[in-house]
Amino acid sequence: MPYIPHTDDERQAMLGTVGAGSVEEVFAEIGEDLRPRSFDLPEARSEMEVVKHLEFLASKNATHVTSFLGAGFYDHYIPEAVDALAGRGEFYTAYTPYQPEASQGTLQAIYEYQTAVARLMGMECANASVYDGGTAIFEAMMMAVRSTKRRRFVISEAVNPIYRIMLTSYTSNLDLELVTVPHKDGVTDVEGLIAAIDDKTAAVLVQNPNFFGNIADFERVFAAAKEKKALSVLSAYPVLQSVLKTPGEMGADIAVAEGQSLGLPLSFGGPYLGIMACTRKLVRQLPGRIAGRTQDTEGRTGYVLTLQAREQHIRRAKATSNICSNQALCAMRAIIHVCLLGQEGLRRTALLSMERARYAAERLTAIPGVELLSDQPFGNEFAVRLPMDAALAIDRLSMRGVVPGFPLGRYYEGMEDCLLVACTEKQTTEDVGVMAEMIGGLVR
Amino acid sequence: MIPDDVLFSKTHEWVRVEDEEAVMGVSHFAQEQLGDLTFVEVPEVGATFQAGEELGSVESVKAASEIYAPVAGEVSEVNEELEENPGLINEDPYGEGWICRIRLDGEPEGLLSPDDYKSLIEEEAH
Question: Which residues of B fall within a CB distance of 8 Å from A318?
Fold first, then answer.
């Protein structure tokens, strides 16, 4: 059956009403050159045929690989209860919660999510989320532009290159200056950043752990920014925040993160979750939805979307952002995930992942010719130099069901022999052993 | 409710000229229209404005609106109290609820007398 609600008779009646002879005539206004030449779609097929075709495509996926891919997105274990709870119709088809009287459940869930985010980041306020980690960075930078009225960004090259590309793309038509401070063997150049912050700088952006897995304390960078009246933005990794010094403890003004590691499957790159938190002083610059707790006329606790004057349905020209939605279902999964694991569970996830990464580093560096990129502390991810092309090593091992990591040469010139290896609690020591043996066999 | 020592702009700001300087705020009528204020965005000390330029904003439980400079000049002082207690504007718009002081840049122009302003709000109320 075609999924089109109108019959031929109905179409004729509609055309008669508007006084057109054909559908073509209705769209005559739109010039030929403005129309798509083709939608490049195959002929219609029956449901059964389509399902068969999709199953064929799905069968081409390698589903049983051992993967050490990270680079900003991590394959942590997701408890079954996350799917079961987040899949309830009440959450799954939630209506936009602008009418608090009809959306108390959704609003409370967002409020609890914001509380968890604020605690994890050591910040005072959080919003209901934005699309993903990259969007969160762009929005954080725009917060800085609005509040400092300056237009220069100082960015560490050790920030995830995917996010830096997004930021460049997002800001390409805005009159902004992006200054990138190079990394040093995968370590964030703290001194270089401090030197680059001047009194025209709106914000400094760093990442912890950085793209190479390296952990650092940016307290001095943030203090230097404060001195120049610039804002500090830290992009973090939520799972590791349970053991690392938080953005708040370092003195960041805005903390952002990709929330995928909190209960979201990798699922080919999305949908993900953009986490944003900030100091109370900046809350009116925070984009998107913010849920707040209040009381009704009878003194009963209730939840509402608050500070809505920042949003475009109140003052369009003055809105902090054109984002008026949030990743409600992904945020829902994140809060369920965090609640199921609890503080201790999240901490153990982080420690286990870091322990595995240490073991992997040990095994890999035991291979002659393989060495760590730097001797600085790392979290659950680290970079090694191989005595061969990393992309080639990945290709060779992938064919045998092991993806040993991410080829750094894809984004960093001169790092073609560098492999970025990530571990989560899902990789066993046996997995690590097999991967190391295979790499050893390749480079010998 | 309209004091006789102030002048008004058509956008409902009041201004009290004192020699080289002027104090400004929003009118009783404006705060009444807005309802309980929850936030006042005041300008920076040292910022300069032309008359009619946007100088800050006020948010209430039901709306948000811009505040415009009724006179041209440089901001010499702002009411810090408003950050903690924006409700001062509701309680005492012409006194404790002042927004900022402006060092005048020339003579104020195009402002309404209390009587003219009274007619303006009577018109707006209909």
Answer: 57, 64, 66
